[in-house]
Design brief:
InterPro entries: Arc_rbn_hlx_hlx, Ribbon_hlx_hlx. It comes from Actinomadura fibrosa. The chain is mainly alpha-helical and 81 residues long. It has helices at residues 14-26, 31-45.
Length: 81
């Protein structure tokens, strides 16, 4: 189960937001994910990354809980008798 994520309001200069959005697009991330990536990078470089911080999600869609659900076939561990 995924942990609850904090929601914050962030006010940015429009030019800074546009630059972040372009950079995020270049790296195939959302703007929000790019901001989190940069904050984590800055925390790590400053030696302030908490050891309790979870790993950042990988880019792209989350993996399906049941990969066989997409094709309607049996799950890989089920055998057809």
């Amino acid at each position: 189960m995924a942990t609850e994520r904090k929601k914050i309001l962030l006010r940015l200069d429009p030019a800074v937001h546009d630059a972040l959005a372009r950079w995020a697009g270049d790296e195939l991330r959302s703007t929000n994910a790019q901001i989190e990536f940069l904050l984590r990078q800055a925390l790590a470089e400053a030696g302030r990354m908490p050891s309790s911080a979870g790993r950042m999600r990988r880019p792209g869609r989350p993996a399906r809980a049941d990969p066989s659900a997409a094709d309607g076939g049996p799950a890989p561990d089920e055998s057809e008798d």
